[in-house]
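Curious: explain these tokens?
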Amino acid sequence: MFIKKSIFGLIVFLSITMAAKSQVKTAFQVSFKEPQAHYAEVEMNMTGLAAKNYVDVKMPVWTPGSYLVREFAKSVEGFGASVGGKTVKTEKVNKNTWRVYNAKANGVKINYRVYAFEISVRTAFIDASHAFLSSASIFMYPAGMIKTPSTVKIIPFNGWDKVSTGLEPVAGQKFTYSAPDFDILFDSPIEVGNQDVFEFNAAGVKHEVAMYGGGNYDKERLKVDMAKIVEQETAVFGENPNKHYTFIVHNYAQGGGGLEHLNSTVLGASRNGYGSERGYSGFLGLVAHEYFHLWNVKRLRPIALGPFDYDNENYTTNLWIAEGFTSYYPNKVMLRAGLINQEGFINANLGGIGTVMNIPGSKVNSAAESSFDAWINPAYRPSENGNNTFISYYSKGQVIGNLMDLEIINATKGAKSLDDVMKAMYLQCKVLKRGYTDAEFKAMVEKVSGISFTDFWNKYVTGTVDVEFAKYFAYAGIDVVNENEGKSVPYLGANAGRSSMGSGKIIVGSVARGSGAWNGGLNVNDEVVTVDGAPAEMSLERMSQITSKKVGDVVKISIVRDGLKKDLDITLTANPAVRLKATVKEDATPLQLAVRKKWMGVN
């Protein structure tokens, strides 16, 4: 009887506790008193709190999709709180957590300011012309209550009249939006200002495009071509999971990059780049990349990427799929949409292979290792030795996606492709309501292809062997050769440039692993004075003192290191760079033609 009563009491206690947590709601209000100084004013009202002496609120240290701890708390100032209009005690208990002593009150108001002055698709930026709110860097959340709902009311600065976001609007309340939990809020950027907004419909979904910064874009042309991309990518997965989608585009003198979100994306672009075919195609490629993330990474995701830990790094070995395959697919999608031709498609894939093979780090860093080490990779944490130790999971994953696609198509005689794997894994994640493991993804590849991929995994996923480009392209009746094979071009292996201090000095910026410069002791930050007695130039590799020599010859380089002059004898090695060229065979076999057609998705 005692046990039954105890269990009943525990159930009641847990029910009350869970009910209390479920009643917690947070209402934010964001205003801009000093946008010219790059500040947002944030008011955070929490209600339905449990009867405790304090509540902790936290600022995320990173934003999903960008794998770097950015310490957003560093931009917070003026933190304070009140209950019933009376100021209450607060204290900071660790780098991203503030404690509010609310004396068991069920509601508390918190105020703080956020400084936002970093232009990127991942970070908030505010000035007199607009405000871009990257939500993870603006909004705090109550500790342990990430699944509680919130609303956000935006009060635009004087003269601003538009808000663009993927958040759901609250009926009857202007510029007010709701999120069922903080994962959704942090995955929903907000653009505030006077952005140029236009819309199009594709795959049964309303799409809004919010353009900030002006530019020479043609809205009508973009509506048509962006819709083509949406339709082709939706066709890969069989369904579009959104009711509406928002593109936030920041046009600067020189812009680039993108960041995916659940039903929106933020893109960086060059405002005058739309006028050239190269610039326009590049923008569409970025659209295709970020929109493909709507499935791959946001829903079809590695198991480690959600639910998120916003306090720490979230590790996975599968970013070569999440980002790499998303780098592979834009060229396929744009080919199928008629936005590039077959030659452009083939050359883009060969270029990706060449990029990987020409980076020394590809021989020491596997795709899985690169994924796991995303948090310390040189793309986010620049390192002069990065190319010697690291290969981008974007680049390597793009190549793996290409090879895997061709292997699957060849094994199934043109019946199946990587599309079938991606669709099946998307549906699996949807049914299981969780992400996939590496083993599950490999198992699906083998199920679809009907062959073992263990050797493939050992070579390209966990291994570092060079790409067997000729083998895989031959499946599609395409001969690929390395035009540099057999050539013996002398190679120093060092890049240099003029000093940023304005002195005009030639300073070594990087040294390639295994090159003559590497073996001969030339160091990053050395000042190169002369090469075989001639004054140094920035393009050391193209100096006549090097190009007129042969592999094995010695070059005498005079440098200054730490104020001391030093002479180095460097033996030139052969340039290891590959340059790939493709020839589409006119006498391809029926199987090769079937593979080519399935691979490209066009006749």
